[in-house]
Structure formats: structure tokens, C-alpha cells
Amino acid sequence: MAVVERVWSREILDSRGRPTVWASCELRGGAIAAASVPSGASTGRAEAIELRDGDSKRYGGLGCRQAVANVNGPICDALQGNTFETQQQLDAALLALDGTPNKSRLGANAILAVSLAFARASAVENRVPLYRQFATIIGDEPRTLPRMTINLFSGGKHAGGQVCIQDVLVVPAAAKTIDEGLAATYAVYQAAAKLTQQKYGARALKADEGGLAPPFPSTESMLVDAVAAMRQAGFEPGRDVAIAVDVASSHFFESGRYTFDGQALDSHAMIGLVSGWLEKYPIVSLEDALSEDDWSNWPALKTSLGTKALTLGDDFLCTNPARIRRAIDAGAANALLLKVNHIGTLSEAAEALRLARSAGWRVTVSARSGETEDDWLADLAVGWNADQIKVGSITQSERLAKYNRLLAIEAETGLPVIAWP
Predict the structure, then answer these.
(1) What distance separates the 2 farthest-apart alpha carbons in the chain?
(2) Which DSSP string do the residues of 240-271 spell out, in sequence order?
(3) N or C: which terminus of the chain has fewer CB atoms within 10 Å of its end residue's CB?
(4) What is the DSSP pairing of strand 335-338 with strand 362-366?
(5) How far apart are the first and last CA of the chain?
(6) The pLDDT of residue 160
(7) Of these residues, 209, 292, 348, 398, which one is catalytic?
(8) Could you confirm whether 209 is annotated as catalytic?
């Protein structure tokens, strides 16, 4: 049971130099904690609404002063002095105060910042690590550490669109610990940086999430180069390390066609393309391989991929319980990319997690392209027993903060890394 003494907020900058929201929560017992929220570049239409100021003279309209004012004003007024026995009660109060289906009144960025700050303050008051506080939300105990999927190459909206797909990621499939997985990925990343210098004459320029972004001549060259980097680092692709791909196909889908490397593909051809990759490359996960609106063809995609690779939904599902229920009923996916700011509160994200687990799905807890140095995501992935975690590359402090937190949790708990499904 916690009594909220006050909440307050300020605008800070994310890893792309864009504004986002920081909030702090003080409980009557003296516990104080803060949290900051990320922001995405590749966003789904079903996402909860980030409240932006729209003043073109300041941060190109991306300012968050109104969201901050909503925390300092109506949210603080509504919570101050009230008792909340659970996270669900706190989040329900926030949702009732907003009163819209997509959090457009107060802003999902304002609401989530307070939801997270309350969880962290509760952990302080209860004298437990944050991952254990997160575990209480779902009534579970941490049993494993998530397997990492780490950004190697980037395209799409994360890298200026030199190729259409968004990310090729390294999966340290054979690593038994977080430490081993990071070391293996470092070796692959360095080999990839050297390869791109030799092959493209490109310096190790990085995309939003730290991935390398040389001028690939085609999308498939990303996959070819990823496998080459793995071999050059001394690993056997498919045994020691594997590949996950974020296709993010909604961004090149229009009028029923996918514009892919100069071709106009229908859904059947797109399924054939990505399924063909599985025969040539050690791909174990395909994220948003079809558009978020291409509902009628997702079941065929899942059937085509079978057990060779996860059929992972990001923008397709938007961590939204209603969309997840629809996908379960349609047999349209078997894995959820869980982004808490897709939906806006911890409790709603926990419901999305519950639904995915009830269908036997795998769950990847994910960061966003616009991140902060806050490391709560690592605790969430552990507390909610995520199968995978997707943070970005092994460069840039906003990414490393999460990986370093995973190392700390590993040292503290001795939990094993989950096996790849």
C-alpha cells in the first residue's frame, strides 16, 4: 500500500536530441524515485498518443512542455494524498483521468512516466530490486534472463532509408550468460565495422540505435554481410550466433503493394521473399514482415515461417490487448514485441503480456529508437521473464545502460539466460 505525496515532471532530451518526459514520484513513507520514457521513430498507427506541443519554432514542434504540465498539474492533483494498494490501481486512476481510448488528452508520455516512477518508488519503499517490483505486477517470480537480440546493421527509418528494411540483429544463440553474449556480439560488430570499411569505404557511421549503416546496394547485401561478419569473428552462423530481422514493412507498404528494392510486391510475393531468406541465412526471428494493416495475410506468413523463425509482431500488435486478441484468434503471429510506451501504462502492458503467454507466444521486450540513459527496461525484461530483449547496438550510452544493468542483475541473481525457442 502506497500513499502518493506528490509527482512532478520536466522535459529532457532523448538519444536523438528530441524532447521526452521525465517524472518523479514521492510516497508518504519517504521513498522517491524517477523514470524517463522513450520515444519511437518507427511508430504504428495504433500506438498510444505522445503529446507534443506543436510549436514549430521549438524543437520542430516536438516539445513536451504540455505533457510535463499535465504531470505537474492535473495528474499530481488527482494522485496526491491518495492510497494505491497496487500498480493496477494507480494506472486505473491515470486512465480514468485521461478518459480517452488513446491517451490523447494527457499524453501517453506523461501517463507512462508517472506509471514507471510509481513502480520504481514502490520498489524503493518495499526495499526490493526493480525487477522484483515489476514481477509483482504480473504475480510471478524472475526465473531466467532474456536472450539478447542486438542491432548490427540498420536501414529504413533508423538510417535514412538507404535500404527499406529497418534492422539486422545479432542473436548470440549459444551464449550461456549475458557476459558471453555481449562479448560475442562485440566481436561480430567489430568485424562488421572492418568489413564495411573494406567493402564500401564507409566509416563506422551509426544509425539511431547504434547499428552500422553503410551504403548497402540491396537489402539482401545486409544479410550477406552479417553472415560474413559472423564468420570473420570466428563464429559459425546458425550455431554460435544467429540473425533476427526487423523488416518494418508498414513503412514501404502502400495501396496493397510492398515497394521493395525497386520491386512492387503483393503480399504473397512478400511472404515468399522473406520465407526464402530462411533457406539461405540463419534467421530465427522476423519482425513485422508484413504491414500492420495486412491482416488477411499474416496467417499465411505464420504458416510459411512455421517453426523456422518467430512471426513477431511490433507495429502489427502495438502491445495493444485488442489487437493481440484479434491476432490470436486469426492465428496471425506467435511472438509479441512488447513496448510499454506503445500502450502507455505498465498494467496495460502486463495484460498484453498475459494474453501473449496464454496463447503460447514468445515475448521480446523492446526499447525504442529514441531512448534515455534510464535502465528500467532491463529490469522489466527480467521481472516479466521475457524470452528476448531488444535494446539496440552495443554502442551509445542509452543502449549500454540497459546492457550494463543486465550484467548487474546477472551478477546479483545468477539466473540463467533462457534458451532460444
Answers:
(1) 62
(2) TBEEEEE--GGGGEETTEEEETTEEE-HHHHH
(3) N
(4) parallel
(5) 38
(6) 64
(7) 209
(8) yes
- Residue 44 pLDDT > 70: no
Is 339 among the residues known to form the active site?
yes
Q: Which residue has the cell 533476427?
A: 244
User: Residue 21 belongs to what H/E stretch?
Assistant: strand 19-27
Q: Are 148 and 178 in contact (CB under 8 A)?
A: yes
Q: What is the pTM of this model?
A: 0.96
DSSP H helical ranges for 160-318 = 178-200, 219-232, 267-280, 298-305
Q: How far is CA 4 from the centre of its chain?
A: 29
- Condensed to tens digits (0 to 9), the pLDDT of residues 166-196 reads 999 999 999 999 999 999 999 999 999 999 9
Element of type H or E holding 171: strand 167-171
> Which three cell numbers, joined as nine digits, stand for 86?
497496487
Rounded to an integer, what distance in angstroms lies between the CA atom of residue 15 and that of residue 395?
12
User: Which residue ranges form the domains of the chain, and what is each CATH number?
Assistant: 2-127 (3.30.390.10), 147-413 (3.20.20.120)
Q: pLDDT tens, 72-108? A: 999 999 999 999 999 999 999 999 999 999 999 999 9
Q: Which of 157, 339, 390, 402 is catalytic?
A: 339
204 versus 74: which is more confidently predicted? Answer: 74
